[in-house]
Amino acid sequence: MLKSNWSCTLWEKEGAAVQLQFNKPIPKSARILISGCLRKEAAQNSDSVFNIPLTVASISQSTGRGCLTQFAYCKQFGGSSAELTAVRLAVAGVTMSGSNVSALTVTVEVANLDGNDESTVYLDVYTDIF
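^ thats the sequence. predicted structure below, dont judge the formating
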């Protein structure tokens, strides 16, 4: 596991670049996998709003750019598509440690987020190289 319970509160970080520091450096050729959830509040035991299944992140080896995850969710069950909030955690770049990657710079992109929303993304980050 590269990182456990990395969190990002959407309204605090919207439009900002945040660092996702790994526990250990990995080769540029390694695949990054993520899983996690979106919680209603910053507390780790708050209600889960959306589950993020185990997914291979789409990151270009040549540019270091891509996407960790993207999803849309509705705050109310049965709500209309106009009430959807869209979230994208884009990879803007990597931090190198020698010839290995030690961190990702993640840009938080959110559409249609209520200003009072305290939704927080929690991610576990894995690699296919041990």
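The chain has a mean pLDDT of 90.
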